[in-house]
Fold these 2 entries.
Entry 1:
Amino acid sequence: MTSEFTKGIFKENPIFIILLGLCPTLAVSTQVVNALGMGAGVVFVLLGSNIFISLLKGFIPEKIRIPAFIVIIASFVTVVDLVMQAFAPSLSKSLGVFVKLIVVNCIILGRAEAFASKKSLSESLLDALGMGIGFTLGLLLISLIREVFGSGTITLFAMGSFDGVIRIPGLASQPARVLALSSGALLIMGYLKAFFNWLEFRREEARSWPRVRPTLRLRVAADAQRAPAPAEGALADSAAESAGSVS
Amino acid sequence: MTYIGIIITFVFINNFILTQFLGLCPFIGVSRKTDSAVGMGFAVIFVMSLAALATWAVYRLILVPLNVAYLQTISFILIIAALVQLVEMVIQKISPPLYKALGIYLPLITTNCAVLGIALIAVRSEYTALESFVAGIAAGLGFLLAIVVMSNLRERMDREWIPRPFRGVPIAFVTAGLMALAFMAFDKALLRNLLG
């Protein structure tokens, strides 16, 4: 049962592993607060649509299931949109059309089609929670990197005398602005995906380790030592490089 | 805004893929070969221009008079889904060669953020019917431009050695990022200089 929940966060993370729902991801990742707002919206819509579709799975005719799913999803998106306009107008303004565009977020239709329309209510619920949280964490990671290095700030919700913006000394005065621009989102997405691929390859190698013959194992180990590993350092380097070339 | 202004804005300054990230999934998914990229690009232009026009009509003539503008998300996505089906059937009947070229891309377009995006943006900017139509064509042209350039770059990259973790999608994203950097040369100042 718990695997239904955790698979969305790590093994099948919608953003980094199965690459779904990228349009809203990159567009709203300029500020941490936008990522949190978008994540909350997606979690709500995913939960609502997965619950409804799981309950209605016996009633929706096979042939018109996709339009039916889309109507259910669009209804929940309208709810999110109206609630956000009423209670968080500034957030709604900065997310713009991307709140409405949750409808075409492939994660939600994908989960409805591949999971909720076949599984029981409790499994669909856990799946929706896991996928939603995985999506939010992925979005948070991208927006944190973009905002910290691109503007030198972390924007959260304003509370009382705290205006919601944490300024990072040193970075706030001279940020790598390219990361805050649209190209920064694409670059970071590419480097993060490469980093996760690299982790995956390393894990695969470790798994096939005992089956390799001893002599070969030594040679592979020597190769691995010689080859430079494209880790997080590569990201920072290239970011600094591209920032340097712009300014 | 003049029609030329709209065209320049949507093709270059607010290029849907490179500055707004709308339609990113097909952009990464269908840009391996130039042939399929061109097919996808034209299918998108076709659907986007019609969708912008159809959603304009429904919004102005049905939703606003009935005072139910909040239903726009639901109605727009249904219109787009129906429109894609209709276009598919009409093309199949009228021009089989065109259907053969565009057919497999059409179903993918229903869940393309760019199509719903242009419909919502046109309504939000309060364009007239013709302006919406022109904006749809221009945004589609921007998509075509980006995806064709990208597919050419990716065909060239296939012949180069790329570190294993970067192969496939990651290098495509990095390339798109550099393209977006190049597109930053087009900004509002350009439009002002061109049109006075």
Entry 2:
Amino acid sequence: MDVGSIIENSLRAAVGLEAVAFVLAAIGLNLHFGYTGLLNFGQVGFMSVGAYSIAITVNELDLSMWAGIPIGILAATVFALLLGIPTLRLRADYLAIVTIAAGEIFRLVVRAASLRDLTGGSSGMTQFARDFYAINPFGDGTYGFGVFRWDERRFWLLIVCWTLVAVVSGLVILLIRSPWGRVLKSIREDEDAARSLGKNVYWFKMQSLILGGICGAFAGFALAIGTQSVQPDTYSTAITFYALTALIIGGMAKSIGPIVGSMLFWLLFAGVDVLLREMQSADYIPEWLMDGTQVGQVRVMLVGLALMLLPIFRPQGLFGDKREIQLDAR
Amino acid sequence: MRRLVLVLVVLCASLGALSGVATAQDAEETEGDETVEVSEWSVIGTMKDPEGEPIEGAEFTVSSADGEEIGTATSDEEGNWGVELPGPGDYRAELDTDTLPEGVALRNEDNNPLEFTVRTLGRPRVVLFATGEGASRGVPAWEELLNNVVSGLKFGLVIAMAAIGLSLIFGTTGLTNFAHGEMVTWGALVAYFFNVHAGLHLIPAAVLAIGVGAVTGGLQDRLLWRPLRRRRTGLIAMMVVSIGLGLLVRNIFLFVFLGRTRAYADYAVQRDWEIGPIGITPKDLASIVICVVVLLLVGLGLQRTRLGTAMRAVADNPDLAASSGIDVQRVILYVWVFGGGLAALGGVLQAMGEQTSFQQGFLLLLLMFAGVTLGGLGTAYGALVGSVIVGLLVEVSTGPPFDLPSEMKYLGALFVLIIILVVRPQGILGSKERIG
Amino acid sequence: MPASALADVTPVPGVPKPDPVLVVDGVRRTFGGLTAVDVEHVEVQRGLITALIGPNGAGKTTFFNLLTGFDKPDTGSWTFDGQPVAGVPAHKVARLGMVRTFQLTKSLARLPVIENMRLGATGQRGESFLRALVPSLWKSQEEAITERADSLLERFKLSHMRDEYAGTLSGGQRKLLEMARALMTEPKLVMLDEPMAGVNPALTQSLLGHVKDLRAQGMTVVFVEHDMDVVYDISDWVIVMAEGRVIAEGPPESIGANQQVIDAYLGAHHDAPTSAAEEEAQLAEAQAMIAEEEEGGSS
């Protein structure tokens, strides 16, 4: 069994495309849920909006991919408004149900055969990120050190994305430590108290939803550009729950939570996959017990298990504050 | 928490046993799915006659938009055919109608040759040449509407069966159970196991499935939810736990039963009975009758029996109920037992109509939420009313006068969910104070 | 004494006041078939402490909720400082200067006490999203706010808990915090919903002192209370509600003897004596009855 391969793949996954995309999505989810107390389970919808914005901008509107980014941000804002206007007055678990429904609606709409010419239907769309790679300063070759090696295209993308993570995290830290962030936290604790002190709770919730949604859209940009494809079924509700797991692992309402959480999540997610496959090829796992496709399912089972055990045994994750959890009145 | 570990071990062991049986059986079945070779760019299709049987020997020619021939293909014994393409772009596919079997004609002659666009690398583009009469030809609109209403009623009653448990669980414990869909699938799969693998007729298999579902529900409460309640776990944390449970169990099902849909051994294909303008299969009719009878019994039970009244009391106001001397924890246990049993029955009925698969329940979950929210979260009658309406919406929207494309039919229900939450969040029968 | 402003006001429900800060007209709120609030007319004098009392279920908290925008009435209008505020959302009402506290204290548990206090300040530049990103735009204001917060905490004797999570405070401390936090908004009218509920007697005195301080600083106070000793101690005027309506108004002394108030608290047909003379009369009656029975029994 190639233990080296397992370790290598795990470590690379921790800083790879999926991890950095999830960091962005989790930062958004942290704004929604960790700081404002909004149960937005439709974050995958925002990711999908971002991804499809880029794809449609290039394929249908025949514009440069760079135009797709402001379009995606605008689309995410509109999606947040459509989502928020009717629902931000509702209680937490209602919001959860509605946001899942919204994510599913978006997936069904872009999947629809009737809109196939615009969105590619169930097959999706490909080949739209040429403009991004066109400005790649790195020439052909592999870059990185040790196990962290990628070709010039992926390396370029990862550099850009992780820089983006640093910028966005910095902005979020600034915001959370400001009076604006204080109002969000007060909304999380008790909306009515915030209202009685003159804060426009509804508008603050909406701002949080929009900003966190834009973070989700950026995650979608990264995935779309990185894989050069968008498909409706990649953006299923389960993805939001993966991001939630990553956030809980890292620690909610902490700036480092989404970053470390997502990295650890993908390290384990990829690592388990490689481990199981290695065990299969080394015949530690007989074929009748588990075949190739079933390995993928075991991974998801583990995510489900994590989502069950974490809130019970370690709700503060890695970096969260245990005292804060104990004081949580919800 | 050792109990939790014990539960998981038992769960895995029993599913491992089931899996051993299921996959052993599968190994004996011949794998008949031949797939057509696919390259980077390709177009594929499957030819079936109006009865759903594959057509062998149909000949296809694929050309580029300019008319230049790219390739030809003949459908195999499964009806599958495919042609490799040089790259993305616009193409057309033409079926030689002389190669169709006798008595089989294309539904729409104008669609031959069929024009299509290919954009996606690595995934074959699927095209469809439909044969035989479409369902809508020759049937007056009102008759189709009536048939859709009946289908909607049946679907809605099945949703209601599963949703009552969901609603009562919310009412009595405040938990929004995201794993409820899996209780539905569980019932369907257990019945499948007893029916197809153990050889029982579907009816005793279904009864067993209901029993297993009820027991599973009770065990869930005793081993998972009640300890969490005792620890005073917050409602949001419990919701997240239920999401994790759903994810875990759904993938266990997927692992064990694989991704294909499967059908029960009995009542598989039936001809419609004609009752006036309505065409309905015997099993669908039975489904409606069973649902109505069971729901009536449930309704009577809730109204007349002491336990039923206690359930309604706890669902309405747990603190008040407790102070009137009701053993709230025992009532909650019964809610889970009945909820589990009803969900299992719903699962069997749904699977009878549409075959069963690992994610049958999850698809239903959103519709259940829609139904329960529409009717009023926390009330049993609300779940019934709301679910039937959702079922009607889903089925009726695909026919006249709305004519939504069938892939969009769930959209209608989801939209209604959102609209209801905006306009009247407590639903039709719910009370206002619950919504915060 | 500011209470002398009401010396000439007849103690009748709905009586107008010489300088009202709050004027309420025809407010009704029903829940299903139940009428929770049905107030024809009531006015609250500026700069005084007005107590709002009444039996449980009289509609006092609902009335508070309606006036401060936390609930919508079926009909009615009211003005605050001359400005109509019916239908104005709760946060705007708070910004106009009418601030309320809650029966069940809403301390923001996972925020430190000092952050709770800073939150109360209105007009914070840093609360705007864009400006929040540029600390230099709001830092100095934040410092001024913190100074004010610290001095208030000093006054309320909570300074030692300044950096602790509000969730670790005791019940009484939370009451103090909520009151102090409300003062950060620099309100004109402070509406306290049962400020003494669940507070130990020692702390009650301290709270009473703070409430009197508010009046001394020119604020108007309306508070809901059940403890009649507290009411007699600090209120200048009392409004009595029962079954949603205002049934009596007047200086505290006049309320105790008011027959309608007594009826409301004890039930319209009651046997409990309300004065020493009545008690003796009832005692005599009972003794006479017993004597009669004994005579009848022994024959």
